[in-house]
Amino acid sequence: MPSAYVPIRTPRISEEIGARIRQQIASGELKPNDRLPTERELSEMFAVSRMAVREGMRNLEVAGLITLKKGRSGGAFVADGGAKLVTQSFRDMIDLGRASVDMLLEARLHVMDTVVRLACRRARAAHLAALEKNLTEATALTEQGRFEERTYKAIEFNRLLAEATGNVILTAMVEGLSDVLRHFVALAGPRVHDPVLTTRRTLLDQIRARDEEAAARTMETYLRGLQAHLEKARRPAERQSVEARAR
Asked: pTM value?
């Protein structure tokens, strides 16, 4: 029996269950998408109640470390990636009024500047190939008029760019910011002359050339243009809200 699966003797049993499984994930014994033993099996391994196991699993799910799936092929699985919790944190800050869209846009501007500069220094052939493939697929979706699907390709492009830095913290931040802002981009609608594809072609060429300053300028110009578009789209909605409250 693995050392992680030994009887638990502690007043805070569910927390200890979570700690044991966290340890297995951290050590690599459990990998992304691995299926955990069933609730009954964990109960027997840890010599605890199934209720304690269930609570421990819920805590791990809230922490973004596992996903719980229902059905015949369901169960507890190790989460793939660490951006889910970051994304939820950003959403909570917006929903609870602790942060604004402008704060998210400002944070994204500075984070992406760092990401682009590091990508210019660290991107390998595999990273460049993945970015090229994404751009080709996004171009095809645009030609087919499948703009909603292209939005997800845009998020994927940002994630691939962040992965080229080799920094998983930056990757999680980029995914979280992109995912939350996607909602506001969708509300604003498409730009009249959307430069996203031409901008990404230019950016990719600059990263290939390791032209850090040029790539950073390209990214900043694009993000500031997008920010202006979102602000313009928000003004009518904000005005209507003010007028409704004044009635």
From this structure: 0.71
